[in-house]
Amino acid sequence: MPAHCLILGGQKSGKSRHAEAMALRWLSQPGREAVLIATAQAWDEEMQERIARHRADRAVYASGLQTVEEPLQLAQAIRRCSAPQRLLVVDCLTLWLTNYAMPIDVADADEATGLRARRAEFQAAKLELLAALQSAQGPVLLVSNEMGWGVMPMGRAVRAFADELGLLNQAIAAVCQQVLMVVAGQAVDVKALAHNAVHVGNDQGPQPGAH
Length: 211
What we know:
Strand order of the largest sheet: 3-2-4-5-1-6-7
CATH architecture: 3-Layer(aba) Sandwich
Organism: Lampropedia aestuarii
Mean pLDDT: 86
EC number: 2.7.1.156, 2.7.7.62
Radius of gyration: 19 Å
Shape: globular
Pfam family, one: CobU
Pathway: Cofactor biosynthesis; adenosylcobalamin biosynthesis; adenosylcobalamin from cob(II)yrinate a,c-diamide: step 5/7; Cofactor biosynthesis; adenosylcobalamin biosynthesis; adenosylcobalamin from cob(II)yrinate a,c-diamide: step 6/7
Helix content: 40-55%
Protein name: Bifunctional adenosylcobalamin biosynthesis protein
CATH class: Alpha Beta
Low-confidence stretches: none
Number of helices: 7
CATH superfamily: P-loop containing nucleotide triphosphate hydrolases
């Protein structure tokens, strides 16, 4: 297993289940541990039910996976939990960003100021996360949504969120040794494909008409 892996996919693509399967393969070796760092917060009744369902599923499919709930301080959780024989699974970066993008405790009169403060807070947390990954003692799997292939959202706030998530995914991918794209439960190694494509292009040499 590579040191760090970013697992991308759309809604219900199977990305979380794939991360759990990778964790189970890791746990199959003696002396190893695995910890899930869950970023979800129960904002409403539907989210409460979703979280409960994920817990029940993990109890069946990944019973050896310990769980730590951390909606905001993700870098600190990685530093605290990381160890050479312990795999960390972050599920997921999309909800982590959502927790910063939804300032529930900000009054309407101070909404603009509160949103700017939250954005600045997230940018600092993002840099801390990247630093934590680079210094982590053990492997980390990070699950995130790929939102850039759908219809462009109409609302400005949703467009800004999609942009921010895309930039976050790019930054995380740059420090991960492997990037997987999960489609309909099937995982494709994106970095391996990109690496092979570069080699194929170099082997072919200059194309006719190329300058």
